[in-house]
């Protein structure tokens, strides 16, 4: 849930990067960390296995500057994509304001993408959220790989509700900021409605 502190004039929002294992969620956060100036970021915290798979989550606080006089921070989290870490995924969704779904464009990950969206839908429901109402963007990652499926096919399979879709090559930083800005915009619109 967005946290607004009227006394300190601060807004804190939580964005979660969700998606199948090895899809590129951690790479998104690493890129945002790299290109953000030191004054506008906190530490990137990663709890990973020896083989760089996310074990619990990654966390990166980013300062978006002043919005209507409020210092606005986005707290970016990733979930572990591997199927058996479901209890961690559930926990990390607590209080979420917006989701970037990072899909893997490769044909062999088609089932994993679908399974992850279904898992996200269920886990959001457990926290009382409706995937059809929460700020949400679809990122089609790994566009550089030869096994990437056509965009139209991926959109047909994975788009949940007409959400914005971004093509990405996370290792090169392509499509990452577009995805983040689009979800941030939706979160701020929701905030304005409820304020
Ligand atoms: N070719 C290519 N490789 C990518 C791209 N994005 C990420 N990768 C690679 O894919 C692997 C997995 O990326 P991660 O960011 O760790 O994936 P993840 O979604 O965090 O995976 P889990 O933590 O297991 O859920 C790494 O070796 C990345 O370098 C991309 O756009 N193209
Ligand atoms: Mg990861």
* Mean of pLDDT: 95
Secondary structure: helix percent: 25-40%
Q: Rounded to an integer, what's the Rg over CA atoms?
A: 16 Å
pLDDT < 50 runs, ≥5 residues = none
Assign the structural class, choosing from mainly alpha, mainly beta, alpha/beta, alpha+beta, or little secondary structure: alpha/beta
| Total of DSSP H or I helical runs spanning 4+ residues | 5
Q: How would you describe the oligomerization state of the chains in this entry?
A: single chain
The small molecules bound here are:
guanosine-5'-triphosphate, magnesium ion
Shape: globular
Major sheet attributes: 8 strands, mixed
Strand content: 25-35%
> What string, H for helix and E for strand, traces the elements in order?
EEHEEEHEHEHEH
- Counting DSSP E segments of at least 2 residues, the number of strands comes to 8
Distance between the termini: 13 Å
